[in-house]
Amino acid sequence: MTEDSGTGPQVRGAHWYDADAGPLVRPYAMTGGRTKPGPSNVRFDLIALVVVDDSPHGAAEESLLGPEHRALLSLCRCETQSVAELAADADLPVGVVRVLLGDLLEAGHVRVSRPVPPAQLPDEQILREVIDGLRAL
Question: What is the pLDDT of residues 19-31, one digit of tens each?
Answer without folding.
Answer: 665 556 676 667 7
